[in-house]
Amino acid sequence: MPTFSIHTYGCQMNVRDSELLARRLRAAGFADAPAEDEADVVLVNSCSVREKAEEKALGKLGMLCAARRERPGLVVGLTGCMANRLGPDVFALVPGLSFSVGPRAAGAAVVDLVRRALAGSKGMLVPDSERGAEDALPAKDAGAGGPPAPASFVTILFGCNQRCSYCIVPFVRGREESRDPRAVLAEVRAEAERGAREITLLGQSVMRYGRMGFAWPDDLPSPMGFTEPLPRLLELLAREVPAIRRLRFTSGHPLGVTPELVRAMREIPAVCAHLHLPMQSGSDRVLKEMRRGYDRARYLDAVRALREGVPDIAITTDVIVGFPGETEEDFELTRSAMEEAAFDNAFVFKYSPRPGTPSAERPDDVPDEEKRRRDQVLLADQDARGQRLNDRWTGRTVEVLADGPSLRNAARWSGRTEQNKIVVFEPVPGLARGDFVQVRIESAHPQTLFGTVGAPCSAP
Ligand code: SAH
Ligand code: SF4
Ligand code: F3S
């Protein structure tokens, strides 16, 4: 039986796609390789969002194809965003590549491509189709094989129509398409049956769910009286799949933070008090050039509405430094907006021009070393802020979804709170992955809480 291994770059959507591809392959009779260097088939699920991400995937592909000298039958396939960005050019960049398939076509095509590649075919290209994303990731396969994960992902919105000026995602992930709530429900149910206790609903701009080309089915009423699709979906999933004790959704956008959504976050107990709300910049001029559709005040209003409406909410963000023309003054505005928003965590990215995007037409005029400095300043600010915010949790008892031994120290376990904060604790006898435990927080670091387990709060 041929074995496979999948190497994943990029966002949670890619993590989810890799999981679904693995299940497809297992269902077709392939087995997980014990290690990548023993696999008959290696897939690289790639990301195009920054140049660095593409360089890593190309380096990996090059190494794998070179390894074919010692492992002549090795099949190397490319999936994910780079397949769409590079098209047929990829075969010149990576000689020996067996196939390249776009993220929306991969689900339906992968088994056939792998079989043909094992039979000796090379250079097969399957570009994404704009339609049929739903067929690509069917719920019927969602139960097959693999170890259960207590926290899992379900994609609810494919593609992106926002067209921020710096972003490659709309080019590589296609147009926006919302999944039918019944298909989402079936997939969430299947995840619960295989042991998931937490689901994160994914979309590049997830609050656009159901806003276009979509009518909410009449036979799915909202007893809570919601009219917007995302609150309705959250209500539906919470009601129909009680085994899912936590629901999250990402990534957010400030214009999607409506009073109904805030109410859903407050009143549906399963919906976590956490939101990832990318800000990108705190300067109105830069936000306008980024075509983000909001200004600083509007963004901070959304943060205020969330903090007022959802007790103990944690808000995290993405920020880009060194966008073309970003001045010291713009940068300082980002700094102060981050402080005003009081982010629990922040991912800072150095601007990377992406071919074909509008902002790539402009000179990439902030020198690398200045981008690095701005990055470091924001990270130092965030460390101090994270420490300050996390200190407020010491002395409190929080519910943690246990995820298993901690990466840094296998004698201790880690898990996450509703706020998505990582908690490290000593395991108690009988503790299993996927259990909810009460942990009393004793100390805090900027990104981690440390505590002691109290009485188990439930064995789901
Ligand atoms: N769809 C999500 C994010 C997708 S990409 C959203 O808009 O919220 C994840 C993050 O990468 C973005 O939030 C942004 O901060 C960063 N990013 C996107 N394009 C980039 C680029 N060209 N250079 C640097 N960072 C970028
Ligand atoms: Fe890119 Fe903007 Fe879409 Fe996010 S919302 S994927 S930043 S275009
Ligand atoms: Fe990367 Fe594609 Fe996700 S570009 S961030 S893997 S949508």
Task: Give me some keywords for this one.
460 residues; binds FE3-S4 cluster; binds iron/sulfur cluster; single chain; pyruvate-formate lyase- activating enzyme; 3 domains; binds S-adenosyl-L-homocysteine; alpha/beta; Rossmann fold; OB fold (Dihydrolipoamide Acetyltransferase, E2P)
Beta-strand level of the residues, as a percent range? 15-25%
Low-confidence stretches: 135-139
Spatial sequence of strands, sheet with the most strands: 2-1-3-4-5-6
In CATH terms, what is the fold-level topology of the largest domain?
pyruvate-formate lyase- activating enzyme
Largest sheet, described in full? 6 strands, parallel
- Please report the distance between the alpha carbons of the first and last residues: 36 Å
What structural category characterises the helix and strand content? alpha/beta
Chemical compounds bound to the protein: S-adenosyl-L-homocysteine, iron/sulfur cluster, FE3-S4 cluster
CATH level 1 class label of the largest domain: Alpha Beta
Helix content: 25-40%
Question: What CATH architecture of the largest domain do you see?
Answer: Alpha-Beta Horseshoe
- In CATH, the homologous superfamily of the largest domain goes by the name tm_1862 like domain
What is the overall pLDDT average? Answer: 93
How many distinct folded domains?
A: 3
Shape: globular
Radius of gyration, taken over Cα atoms and rounded to an integer in Å? 22 Å
Number of helices: 14
Number of strands: 18
Summary of the model, kept short:
By secondary structure, the protein is of the alpha/beta class. It is 34% helix and 22% strand. The chain has a six-stranded parallel sheet, with helices on both faces. A five-stranded mixed barrel has the order 14-15-16-18-17.
